[in-house]
Amino acid sequence: DSHPNIPLIYPGGNTFMDQFFNDQYATLQWQNLYYPFASVEDWWLASWLLHSWLSMAAIDDFLSLQLVKQLPISYQSAKELHLHAEMLPSGPHCKLHALSPQVSTKCKPVIYYCTTQVSSVASQSSLFMSHISFISWRVWSLSVWIVHIYKEWMSGNHTWNLQDQIPNGATLLGVILSSDKTNISVMTRNRMAH
Fold this sequence. Notes:
Blueprint: H1 16-21, H2 26-31, H3 40-51, H4 56-63, H5 66-69, H6 78-87, E1 96-99, E2 111-114, H7 118-124, E3 139-140, E4 148-149, H8 157-165, E5 182-183, H9 185-188, E6 192-193
Antiparallel strand pairs: 1-2, 3-4, 5-6
């Protein structure tokens, strides 16, 4: 018994990795993995500066130190550093929409659905291909629909109800989030998640 709101799956198209490899700087990135940065050390320093709480003026002061000027880095100012960062390929983009629960709860859950290429990337992975279902479904032990058999997440009542709430053609994609070492052997051949 499949849910009547069947997701639209479009074959082909460009995945995030296709876009990554078709980036205007892709040929230069094949020659230097860290392009537009000169080396891995150059990238580490740039990443540290970009993630720090330093102002543009403080970054300029740091880069003007004689010791730093002797380093083989590809930028001499905060502005150049930011221009280099803008040349990096962007990550996948999500379009999010909040869904409100139909019943009141103590803590208001926020549920989002994401229309992006995540499902395309996941479905093209040989590790996940045979384990991903995009359609909510139910299995019954008898033809009169008396006993519901729960086999996995997409066969549960929760996903069936969630599928009712999302727009026609949209799909659910289960994500495993964990904070401790978790064995996820069924899907990933005895790999661990942290």
